[in-house]
């Protein structure tokens, strides 16, 4: 017995199956994207907590030693895991990235953490979202979408409002140091994304941590002399900032840079000021003026706006159904 199905009915069923497959595929992509976002978020959360830990538990007058002690142990741990030294051009690339992302950046952040309240320091650094978009556009050709750009602009305005709060008693040296640190790290992050394709992230991270820490040591000896004597509290603080806020955080951040656009990764940095503000307010009992709170609100709102709208995907096109004038239907043989 031969059953002839009308071509419109067959095509309609195929279209429904195809639509379901597209929906499942889209859901799978969104789920994977959410996973990469969650992993990347580990970094700004850890970095936001670093301001409080540095300010409360680490020595105040040894910025270069503080940066070196933070970087070198983290790099050596990851190097032991990867068990691979740099090769070829990666010797000089590791040095460049080590200076931008680690050496100069860590030293400046150490100074910033001592000069600014945790919330102010973390929120100022949040403006790096816009700088990352700009550098990614210029160096990688990743043109940012409209909403992430609007969100970044709101963030810049919010930072300006917060910085010029006359009641906040903000040290201008801390603001300048944080802006220079932001520029160094943004350039270093984009170069890492550009250069590290095809290499294990743990190796790339280890190489630049070791290189950056090694560059810091002679300068620390020249400026500060012998390393500071560390008590139990300071040793525990350095253990946290080295293993958690450095080794684990940079692995998560560089993985996110590889899997997501630079614009999205920059906007995830919103969690940096959120963490800094929460810890500074709850643990360090820091107070903020109304203008600073307004500025922080603009930063948070702008980054959320850019991340939410920039990650929206265009709806999948509806499957086209064949017309009723299609060729003869398909025959399905049965018994």
From TrEMBL:
The chain crosses the membrane at residues 34-52, 64-82, 94-113, 119-140, 147-166, 172-192, 204-224, 230-253, 265-284, 290-308. Residues 36-163, 173-305 form the EamA domain. SUPFAM superfamilies: Multidrug resistance efflux transporter EmrE. It is a multi-pass membrane protein. Signal peptide: none annotated. Keywords: Membrane, Transmembrane, Transmembrane helix. It is found in: Membrane. Gene3D superfamilies: 1.10.3730.20. This is ABC transporter permease. It comes from Glutamicibacter nicotianae.
């Amino acid at each position: 017995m031969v059953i002839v199905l009308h071509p419109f009915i067959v095509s309609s069923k195929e279209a429904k199956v195809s639509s379901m497959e597209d929906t499942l595929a889209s859901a799978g992509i969104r789920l994977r994207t959410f996973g990469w976002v969650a992993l990347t978020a580990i970094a700004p959360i850890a970095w936001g907590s670093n301001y409080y830990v540095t300010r409360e538990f680490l020595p105040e007058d040894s910025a270069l030693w503080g940066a070196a002690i933070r970087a070198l142990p983290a790099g050596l741990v990851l190097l032991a895991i990867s068990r691979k030294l740099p090769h070829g051009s990666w010797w000089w690339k590791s040095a460049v990235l080590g200076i931008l992302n680690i050496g100069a950046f860590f030293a400046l952040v150490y100074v910033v953490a001592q000069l600014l309240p945790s919330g102010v320091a973390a929120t100022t650094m949040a403006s790096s979202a816009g700088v990352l978009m700009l550098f990614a556009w210029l160096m990688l050709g990743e043109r940012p979408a409209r909403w992430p750009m609007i969100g970044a602009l709101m963030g810049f305005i919010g930072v300006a409002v917060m910085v010029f709060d006359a009641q906040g008693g903000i040290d201008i040296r801390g603001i300048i140091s944080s802006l220079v640190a932001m520029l160094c790290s943004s350039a270093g992050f984009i170069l890492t994304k550009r250069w590290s394709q095809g290499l294990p992230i743990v190796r790339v991270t280890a190489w630049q941590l070791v290189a950056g820490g090694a560059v810091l040591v002679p300068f620390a000896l020249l400026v500060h002399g012998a390393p500071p004597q560390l008590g139990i509290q300071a040793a525990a603080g350095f253990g946290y900032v080295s293993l958690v806020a450095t080794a684990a955080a940079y692995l998560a951040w560089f993985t996110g840079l590889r899997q997501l656009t630079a614009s999205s990764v920059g906007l995830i940095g919103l969690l940096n000021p959120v963490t800094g503000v929460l810890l500074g307010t709850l643990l360090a009992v820091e107070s903020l003026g109304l203008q600073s709170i307004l500025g922080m609100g603009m930063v948070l709102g702008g980054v959320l706006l850019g991340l939410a709208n920039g990650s929206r995907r265009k709806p999948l096109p509806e499957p086209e159904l064949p017309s009723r004038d299609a060729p003869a239907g398909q025959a399905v043989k049965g018994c």
